């Protein structure tokens, strides 16, 4: 039987680093939303994600998917983002209605 070497200190350090990075990212995003607005932050985050994912993907890239696959993905993303926008607005509106004074 092969046994995999256990490295609990490395696992703990990786988890701690992940929590630190995500906490810093959360603080930066909250600050930016207050400073420049939600739409601008969403746009900047998308550009940053494109940059970082391209840096990881491009050195190992394969051929592009077919046009049909890209079109399906674009529709999927558009539908998902539309539902997120509607859901977020609906939750905010519902919250306002629940806290409204009935008199």
Structure explained in plain terms:
The radius of gyration is 21 Å and the shape is extended. It has two domains: 7-62; 64-103. By secondary structure, the chain is mainly alpha-helical. It has three helices and no strands.
What's the SSE pattern? HHH
The 3D shape can be described as extended
The chain-level structural class is mainly alpha
Total DSSP helices: 3
Fraction of residues in H or I helices: over 70%
Number of strands: 0
Rg, Å, rounded: 21 Å
Largest sheet: none
Note the gap between the termini.
Answer: 73 Å
Question: Overall mean pLDDT score?
Answer: 81
Unreliable runs: 92-98
Our count of domains comes out at 2
**Which strand-content bin applies to the residues?**
under 5%
């Amino acid at each position: 039987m092969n046994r995999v070497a256990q490295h609990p200190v490395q696992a703990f350090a990786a988890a701690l680093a992940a929590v630190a990075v995500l906490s810093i990212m959360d603080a930066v995003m909250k600050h930016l939303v207050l400073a420049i607005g939600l739409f601008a932050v969403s746009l900047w985050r998308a550009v940053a994600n494109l940059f970082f994912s391209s840096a990881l993907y491009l050195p190992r890239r394969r051929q592009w998917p077919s046009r049909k696959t890209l079109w399906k993905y674009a529709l999927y993303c558009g539908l998902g983002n539309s539902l997120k926008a509607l859901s977020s607005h609906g939750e905010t509106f519902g919250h306002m209605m629940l806290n409204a004074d009935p008199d």
